[in-house]
Amino acid sequence: MSQHYSKEEILGSTPRTGFFGHPKGLSTLFFTEFWERFSYYGMKAILAYYIYYSVAKGGFGLDQGLALQIVSMYGALIYMSGIIGGWIADRITGTRHALFFGGVLIMLGHILLSLPNNFTLLLIALLFLIIGTGLLKPNISSTVGLLYDKNDPRLDAAFTIFYMSVNLGALLSPLVVGWAQANLGFHLGFAIAAVGMFFGLLTYLITNKKNLGLAGLEVPDPLTKAERFKMMIIVSLVIIVGVVLCFILSIFNQLTLASFANLVTILGVFLPLFYFGKLILSKKTKDYERKRVLAYFPLFIASVAFWMIQEQGSTVLAQFADTKTQLNLAKITGGFIDFHIPPAWFQSLNPLFIVLLAPVFSMLWVKLGRYNPPTVLKFAIGVILAGISYLIMVIPLSAETSLINPFWLVASFLIVTLGELCISPIGLSTTTKLAPEAFTAQMMSIWFLSNAMAQGINTQMVHVYTVISSNEYFLYSGVIAIAIGILLIFTTPFIKNLMQGVK
Length: 503
Hints:
2 strands, 503 residues, membrane, 19 helices, mainly alpha, 2 domains, Growth Hormone, Chain: A, Dipep/tripep_permease, transport, two-stranded antiparallel sheet
C-alpha cells in the first residue's frame, strides 16, 4: 500500500530554490530529460539508415520502404506506450520509480543497438526503447508539476525551462551521433546514445533523493486487491491471445513485419476513436462538454494531418537527405568549402528552429492582443504550412538535376516548424480547456494519440513514398494537407459554436 503525502509535505521535502530561482528538483529532471532526449533523437536520426544501408556500409541492407515503415512503427508505438506508462505510474509504481525503470530500459536498448547484432536483436532493442520511453516520458513531465503549488506563478516558466531540455537534446544529438555514424560507424553512434542515457541516470541517482524529496514517490490511485486480480487476468488473456495470433499467422506465413505494420496502423486509428466514443457516450460527460468534445474532433483530425508530415522528417525527408540531396559542399560552393554533410544532421533543423522561434511566437500571440487568431484558425494555419513545406519540394524535383541543393530541405524543415509552433503548444492548452471534467487525463491521452495515429498511418504512407515518384508524393501530400486546412477555415464558425465559450 502506497504512503500518502500532502502537498505541503511534498513541497516541504524539496529545496525550493537553487536552479534559476526554481526548486532544485527541476535541475534533476532537466538533465535527466536532456540526456533521455539526446539518446532518443540521436538514435532515431540514424535508425532508418542502419536498416537500409548495405551490409558493407554497416547496415542490414533491407528494402528502403520497409526501413521507413519500421521507424514509423517505432514512433507510433512510442506514443501509444506513453498511455500505458502513465497508467502504471498512477496505479502501481508512482512517477519516480516509473521514470527510473524507464531510463534503465532505454539505456539497455541503446547498448543492444551498439553491439554488432542481428535483426532479431535490433527488434528486441526497439522493444526495450518503446517500453522504457513509455515509462519515462509522461512521468518525468508529471513530476515537474509535483514540485510546485498549483497557484505558483513560476509553474509556466518551469515547463518552459523543462521543454528547453527536450529541444537542446534533440538539437545536439543528431549532430554528434550523425557525425559519429558517418565517420566511425553505426555502432559508435548508438554507443554515444547509450552513454547519454547513462549520464541521465547517473544525474538522477546522485541528485534525486536530495532534490526531489517526496515528489512522485506516492501512487496516486493504487490498485485494490480485486483490481489487481482483474488486471492479472486481463494481461494474461492479452498475452495468450497474442501468442495464439502469432502462431496462427506463422502457420499461414503471415508473421511478417508488413502484417505487424498493418496492426500498428489499425491500433493507431482505433485507439483515439475508442477514446472519443467513450467520452461522448459517457454519462459523466455533461451536454455542453459533449459539444466541446465534438468541437475537438476536427482539431484532432487537423493535428493528425499535421503530424503525418512533421513526423516524416525522420523517415521520408531523412531518406531524401541521404539519397536525393547534394551533401558535398565542395560541389555547391565551387570548392570553397570542402565538407560532406552527414545526412542525420538535417534532424537537428526542427529543434534548432523551435529554440530560435518559440520565444518569437509566444511574444507574437501576446502582441496581437485582440487580433490574436482563434484556436481553430491557428490549427488551420499549422496544417496549411505543413502542406506548403511539402509543396516547395516539388520545385527542385521538377528540375533536371539528380541531386537537389540542401537549402530546399532546410526551407521545408523551417516551414513545417512554423506550423508546429501554431499547433503544438496551442493544442496542449486547448485540450485541457475542452476536456470534460471527469476525463481531463484521458483527453490529454487523446492529444498524444493524434501523433500515434499520424505515425500509424505513416506506416503505410512511407511505403507509398518508395513506390511512386518523390515529385508525386510531395505534391499529393501537400495538396491534401492544404485542403484540410482550408476546410477547417470554412467550418470555423460551426466549430467555435460547439466550443461553448472556449476560445
